[in-house]
Structures
1.
Amino acid sequence: MPVNVIIIGCGGHGRVIADIIKRSGDTVIGFLDDFNNSGEIYGYKILGKVKDCEKFKNKAAFIIGIGDNKIRKKIYENHPNIGYYTAIDKSAVISESAQIGAGTCIMPNAVVNSSSRIGIQCIINSAACVEHDNVLEGFVHISPNASLGGSVHVGEGTHVGISAAVKNNVSICGSCIIGAGAVIIRNIDKPGTYVGVPVHRLERKCDMRILVIAPHADDEVIGAGGLISRYVDEGHEVYVCIVTRGTEPLFDKAFMDKLRRETLESHSLLGVKKTFFLEFPSVMLENEKRYIVNGKIFDVIKEVDPVEVYIPHIGDMQKDHQIVAEASMVALRPKYESSLKRIYAYETLSETGWNIPNVQNEFIPDVYVDISNYIDAKISAMKKYESQLSDFPAARSIQAMEALAKYRGANVNMNAAEAFMLIRETK
């Protein structure tokens, strides 16, 4: 009996998968896509956004038709139990002893030979060859005409480029990008981008060091989570400074320990290079000596030597936000040798816009950062802050964050954006 399938992602890769499903005799009933969520494409209905998969999970199987390994993984992590379809083209040659993980797509004329194990949500692209006894972990992409010799191991999230060749018995760690036409003859045990014959690792130059200063854990993700993800993806180093921590008797120690774990998990997901915890008491910052607060923030700035710094808006309702903004500006005075070029203020839902309305308190953005490709990363990072989230219409809810990103994006004709106020720039 034919299987009904919904494809997540209506780009080129998704449309190729639609052809494979059709040739197999199963039925594509439509697409889900966050940026093209109505009408038709390629003769199929667009049924809604990615999150709508939960509404259809009892009516169809799903396959993620997106070539980017990171995006595929994020969607899977957000929706692990919707029932994933494995697409195998009729022209592919698959050994009876091979194991293929759920959600994997094997394209036309691909080969998967004896005893190979392919993980979940992988892509074996057109005419790629996976020889005997290979192990591919989840979310791997083997590009067209790439060849893997026998007993090769490929770690999670690695992308092997077009026509690349991997010698037998070689192991490639996770989170690598192997360039087109590259030849791998030795093990690769460090994540990164590898090109050439034989391959060598491209050492990405860190063009900028970015520092985000947050009064409380989660402010940094609410205000700049998309920017953090984008900057990390572009090869920059991002540092975060969390100024306060809740203390007893106002805050339960077990709760604060949980929040610390959530912070580190969120920052790991975003790729933050280092997190500084200054441990000043939350909601009691006004009782601390100003010169000590200023000095601790200055020590972080001196260590990082950032090119850009992001601080809370001085007009926020919460007193800790105001004090951190003032202390940051003291520490960032232009009286020392530094790499600093720009200072921005970010907005924090549930604090920005809630103070007494006047010229100083109003957040008036003049810089917008396109996070259309990073809103999912921002939301995933915020979901790690389980203890801080509430249900909509609470300001600190996933829906409110998504709405603000869309609103800020609509201000400047983008799908999603984060807004900032430029405080100072030197050229």
2.
Amino acid sequence: MDTRAEIEKLTAKFAKAITDKDFVALGPFYEERARFLPPGTPMVEGPAAILASIQKMVDNGS
């Protein structure tokens, strides 16, 4: 599989997880030192905190 196809496959997988609100499926996208800066809130670090933040954003319709 070429690089473009791999990126497209991962992008589709990520989008499906968000659409389905399958936050467990998002876990492998983030490594332990990953950071995320959600809008209007402090930065969070690590997969669990990132997934909780994304779940909150999706639940709030962000």
